[in-house]
Amino acid sequence: MRVSGLAVALLVALSLTPLHAQQAQPTPSASAPQSVPNDGIRTEATVVVEGEQPGPGMWIVRKDNHDLYILGTLSPLPAKMQWQSAQVDRVLAQAQEVIRAPYAGFKVDVGWFKGMLLLPKLLGARNNPDDKKLQEVVSPASYARWQVLKSRYIGSDSSVEKWRPIFAAQELYGKAMKKQGLDGNNILAPVINKAIETHHPAVTVVKEEIVITDPKPLLKEWSKTTLDDLACFDKTMTQLETDIDAMRARANAWATGDIAGLRALPPAYQWEACSNAISEAGIGKRLGFGDASRKVEAKWMAAAEAALGKNAVTFATLPLNKMLGSHGYLAQLQSKGYTVIAPDE
Fold first, then answer.
1. Quick one: which of 228, 239, 279 has its CA closest to 75?
2. Of 239, 11, 78, which Cα lies nearest the Cα of 145?
3. Which residues contact 76 (CB under 8 A, 6 or more apart)?
4. What is the Cα–Cα distance from 263 to 276, expressed in whole angstroms?
5. What is the per-residue pLDDT across 38-59, written as a single tens digit (0 to 9) for each?
6. Which pLDDT belongs to residue 306?
7. Angle between helices 112-125 and 215-224 (to 10 degrees)
8. pTM of whole model > 0.90?
9. How far is CA 341 from each of CA 250, 258, 302, 329, 331, rounded to the nearest angstrom?
């Protein structure tokens, strides 16, 4: 079992395993103001595209006659979009190798039956230590904001009030994405996997796994550990209060292949506050989680350079927020002398 979602990495890692629509018009910037709802949260009604969409073009990293095609991925995307992946299919038909997106996570080396026995403890570990309620562990101002957002996106379910802030934030975010017509799941993977099965390139998995052979002591320690996850809680709420319209616009720009639109929009929210609550907590630090993230980046760079040295065509996927920017993967490859060609160049 492996887990790549940083905000829930440790908790989930200790578990068992976690119609042809009509072509929509590209409208990533279309919006119409709405009246302010009773809960005081104003949302701009950016139209979320549906149906068949091309997605963005690919970045190309080139060395002599060797090309590495990189598809920049984004989350969330429009929930009712069908990705038309003809360009990716053509590249994969020629590719000698596919490099998977890098991930760092946990692998629990226990059997299915033993995992079943641990499940009750796992579910309890999601809750705050000492049976405290959310209202008791966050500030009054944060809890007031939570009540407004919870009413809007979750409703009357009270079970979440027992959860640690990081897991309450995750639940809130997931419910909000669904209500806004967005999907935070990896909806591209099945399409890419089908193309890999069709064309049979070599597949390189870039990972850094921390193997846990005895999760019981960790569960016991986790249940008593207070996480520094208040920043995660607050920043997740801030994103839902202020960034929903930009999230829709980014999703639309990706779906319609609007690279200029993606560049013009503010960058997607970075989840460092949530991932640090895991990696910088006692358990995560003791397991070497922070080191794993740095190691996996180095492994991906090594895999990319090796592929550029031997393959005529290689295909890879990377999250846009990791790929772009002055310290992103593309900038690092460019600093090593490789030519980088953007889709809109």
1. 239
2. 239
3. 177, 182, 183, 184, 247, 251
4. 27
5. 554 444 456 788 888 999 999 9
6. 98
7. 10
8. no
9. 21, 16, 20, 13, 11
